[in-house]
Write a structure and sequence with these properties.
This protein has 323 residues and is of the alpha/beta class. The protein has helices at 32-47, 69-74, 85-88, 107-126, 165-173, 183-191, 202-207, 233-238, 241-275, 285-304, 308-321, and strands at 2-9, 12-24, 52-57, 80-84, 130-138, 142-145, 159-161, 177-179, 197-200, 216-219, 225-232, 279-282. Helix 1 (32-47) links the parallel strand 2 (12-24) and strand 3.
Length: 323
């Protein structure tokens, strides 16, 4: 889609064309991330004087699977997409590294890990004719339950909804019973006691009101969950140098804004959950060591299923993180 515009050159009006991009999101319109991306698009539009218009499409407004964002971008169905690592690891296997419990647990570890895996991630994106514009992260993942959990051993026998295979393996190795289901199924399942809890961030927990039936939080800060903003490489190259410069500058700005937004929102959600009476228990140092030992088995299992270049990267990441 192009939009007409004009430039005044030597006293005459010369027509030019403006570019419109589709930006696919997997988040709802009310999500703070969606709202931040809408502001991002507005700033790009204003600073390019209307030459790049980015239309933001929240969850379910476009008919493309969230698990296939790299391929959707390759086909140019959208020119820009929010590719959450945990959802797109089927097409970008290196992204699955961030699903591993107790591997990347703070922003410093995230930054270091991204520096190490970025060349591989960018190389894999090229296969989809895509480019990494920037990344951000969702908050730390914790376990929320309908019954008290004071120690790691208390999870034995509990049915916990997990988001990915490494989490599933981790819960099962703890003696729990991992369950997979869509987010919309969690509330009715918990109310019928089909599940005893779920793994998610406090921000998400509070946002979907799971605190109405999950009244306990076991805070072990399992891992951060990054998401990658990718763009169609040809669409990016078709932009003028000045437009690309504005887009890159805004990407750098909003990478930090998005990270700050979710950290702030999660901290605020923790306080709101506590005020609502949700009882939170923080993992002991002893249980952290026990959980890490179990997590190492999950890491080894995941690594064994990857190609050699990712196996080598995993060795590098573990060495860099001293884990």
């Amino acid at each position: 889609m192009v939009i007409g515009c004009s430039l005044l050159v030597l006293g005459s009006s010369v027509p030019c064309e403006a570019t419109t991009w589709k930006f696919y999101l997997f988040t709802a319109p009310v999500n703070p991330g969606t709202q931040a991306f809408q502001q991002f698009a507005k700033e790009v539009f204003e600073e390019t004087k209307g030459e790049l218009k980015i239309d933001v499409y929240p969850a379910q407004e476009l008919p493309y699977p969230t698990t296939e964002m790299p391929m959707t971008v390759r086909k140019n169905h959208v020119q820009m997409a929010d590719a959450y690592g945990g959802l797109v690891s089927g097409q970008l296997p290196i992204a699955g590294l961030f699903d591993l419990p107790f591997l990347v647990r703070d922003l410093d570890e995230l930054k270091l890990t991204m520096e190490m895996i970025k060349p591989k991630l960018e190389s894999d994106l090229k296969k989809f004719r895509a480019k990494l514009l920037f990344y951000y992260t969702w908050p730390l993942q914790n376990i929320w339950t309908s019954v008290p959990v004071d120690f790691l051993d208390t999870l034995k026998g509990l049915k916990i909804r997990t988001n990915n295979l490494p989490q599933l393996n981790f819960i099962n190795q703890l003696g729990g019973a991992a369950v997979t289901m869509s987010p919309t199924e969690v509330a009715p399942a918990a109310q019928r006691h089909v599940v005893d809890g779920a793994i998610t961030a406090a921000f998400a927990m509070y946002g979907v009101k799971w605190n109405e039936f999950l009244r306990y939080g076991y805070i072990l800060n399992m891992h951060l969950a990054p998401s990658f903003i990718i763009v169609n490489e040809n669409a990016y190259k078709a932009l003028s140098e000045d437009i690309r410069r504005v887009l890159d500058e805004k990407a750098a700005k909003y990478q930090q804004i998005m990270i700050d937004t979710f950290i702030t929102e999660d901290s605020s959600a923790i306080e709101s959950l506590r005020a609502d009476g949700v009882k939170m228990t923080y993992v002991t140092d002893e249980d952290v060591k026990k959980a890490e030992n179990i997590a190492h088995q999950c890491w080894d299992e995941w690594t064994s299923k990857q190609k050699k270049d990712i196996q080598d990267l995993m060795i590098q990441v573990r060495k860099g993180l001293n884990k």
